[in-house]
Design a protein that fits this description.
CATH class: Mainly Beta
Strand content: over 45%
Number of strands: 18
CATH topology: Porin
Shape: globular
Structural class: mainly beta
């Protein structure tokens, strides 16, 4: 064979092999993906909890807790996908990971699962259904600094020793050792069911479970969720929060309606706390609005909780704020919150901040 012809054939064959490899790689990349995302939120202002002293600060998470995440999906064919998510909080004000000292690296979410035409099954550390319902139906969403409803749900029993209260929900916004099934969307209606274990020998009764529905149809949205726990972080540890405490059940309903010129929010929550001999319960309500104002949004919310038994407390929390978008990914905000628990001096928080998403 002519040397030039042989060289030409080898070059053609090499090009064909490379083209085939590239085509295969393109197909593989099209079937799987990994995404990096998150947000950084910092605010400057002052905070005073009920019964405490004022602290001026540069701090994180004014409107949303700062976090970063990785998520990926691989197409398995037939409408099935393998998925995973790893998300961790961090404090940009000091460069440390977690929401607080001792928090785990991936405390927001850390799970793997399967998506299918029949729903999604995930396992690992999962955001609770109660947290999702709480943040979707109040104007300040997931703010642990300015949202009255977040204060009444998650900044209470067993969370904040700076003030004395037996109100609030036991446990974190995420559960370890959990399994969740999420239904497909049925014309705006969907549901979730979650179960978590204590993962400790001899403690097979240590469990947490919840069920939730979500409904979104045009301007109207609604949610309902029930959550039960009989341990906080470790089996048998509820007794360290309240002497003799055995379990807690929480039911929450939420509604919203968007009139365009104003969006209305409403929530009701019933918390039943069970002790060895007796118990106590708490009724909580929240109402709020968001109003478009120029390119930004005015937010206002009021939450009220009342004990029946227990410490016989009332708690009233109100907040107002304004959020201004600088771009699709960056916004600035200013807000003020007033917080009062009966028989304790009032607290308040005010500040301005900036949030950037990536």
């Amino acid at each position: 064979m002519n040397t030039n012809v042989s060289r030409a054939l080898k070059t053609t064959l090499k090009a064909s092999v490379i083209a085939g490899l590239l085509a295969g790689a393109s197909t593989a990349f099209a079937q799987s993906s990994v995404q990096l995302y998150g947000q950084v939120d910092e605010w400057v202002g002052a905070q005073k909890f009920p019964g405490g002293e004022r602290a001026w600060q540069v701090s994180g998470g004014g409107m949303s807790t700062s976090y970063w995440g990785l998520k990926g999906a691989e197409d398995l064919g037939g409408g099935y996908k393998a998925i995973f998510t790893l998300e961790g909080f961090f404090r940009a004000q000091n460069g440390q990971y977690g929401r607080f000292t001792g928090d785990t690296m991936f405390s927001r979410n850390a799970y793997v699962g399967i998506e299918s035409p029949y729903g999604t099954l995930t396992a690992g550390r999962l955001t609770t259904d109660l947290f999702v319902s709480t943040i979707l139906f109040n104007p300040f969403i997931d703010s642990y600094v300015f949202s009255p409803m977040v204060y009444h749900v998650f900044l209470g029993l067993g969370t904040f020793p700076t003030y004395t209260t037996d109100q609030g929900v036991v446990g974190d916004s995420g559960w370890n050792n959990a399994v969740q099934y999420s239904t497909p969307d049925f014309n705006g209606l969907s549901g979730n069911a979650m179960y978590a274990l204590g993962n400790t020998a001899g403690q097979n009764g240590a469990k947490k479970y919840s069920a939730q529905f979500l409904y979104f149809h045009g301007a109207f949205a609604a949610t309902g969720v029930y959550q039960y726990v009989n341990f906080n972080s470790n089996p048998g540890d509820l007794d360290s929060l309240v002497t003799g405490m055995k379990s807690q059940g929480v039911g929450q309903l939420g509604l919203s309606y968007d009139f365009k010129f104003v969006k209305l929010y409403g929530q009701y929550m019933y918390t039943s706390n069970n002790q060895q001999i007796s118990g106590w319960h708490v009724n909580t309500g929240q109402g709020g609005v968001t109003v478009p104002a120029g390119p930004g949004t005015i937010m206002a919310s009021y939450a009220y909780s009342r004990d029946s038994g227990g410490l016989d407390q009332t708690r009233q929390t109100a907040a107002v704020g304004y959020d201004y978008p600088l771009s699709k990914r960056t916004d600035v905000y200013a807000a003020y919150l007033y917080d009062h628990i009966s028989r304790q001096s009032s607290g308040d928080t005010f500040g301005i901040g900036i949030r950037a998403k990536f």
